[in-house]
# Entry
Amino acid sequence: MRFVIVTGLSGAGKTEATRSLEDLGYFCVDNLPPKLIPKFAEACLQSHGKIDKVALVIDIRGGIFFDDLFESLIYLKENEFKYEILFLEASDEVLVKRFKESRRSHPLAPTGRVITGIDEERKKLRELKNRADNLIDTSRYAIRDLREKINVLYGDGTHEEKQLSITVLSFGFKYGIPTDSDLVFDVRFLPNPFYIPDLKPFSGNDEPVRKYVLEHEETKGFLEKLEDMVLFLIPNYVKEGKRQLIISIGCTGGRHRSVSIANALHEKLSNDGYKSSIDHRDINEDVNRGAKKL
# Structure
């Protein structure tokens, strides 16, 4: 088990670091009373490998319970429970600026100057900082920089682009564009199997329709350009911190052309090692509505 204690100065980026760890598959708990760490660690061990990556956010928000942290760390060490400490910090100027922008008061100076709270917090965390296995100064970090750093330190070696969750979604324009779409492509310019009596009853999941749609030269050219564009966009989306991408492919009814193209794109992404899933929102919509009329 990889057991990470995330701590550091208020405003230094612990929340974003925790989100990044969650995206990497860590089971994250925020502001757990330090005295409960040993019990929590034992519970994780009893999961028999189901929980193998854990991150606990421990900081001065724990108030009087924070002083129990070192006692809990001694317990973990005595029981040969491996853990590592990630400490985040930033300069006074940056921290003050972040607090002013967020319009939040400092936990140790709720009614006073932010800088006073920062000074007090540095003193309280000095020993914990000295024990840190990894120390990150986020003063000059953008969110994407911190994500990249966390991925390097705590990822499993998988390239970050491969961790982007991609959903390829087919739909029918007459039923509306999916509201959660990031990219929308209109394939109504392709030859339509709907007007071929032998193909109309089938969907883009069936080989006759798939073959008909994909065999046309305009389809081949479009797919090549579509795949090239998506593969260009993925690393740039990841660079900006995006973790989920919805690519919507639409035709008139969402049963034939869009399904065939969505399947082809999904297969390409999956074969290239990306986390791609497929969803055909309206594939049976016309059939279901026709049955209701009957």
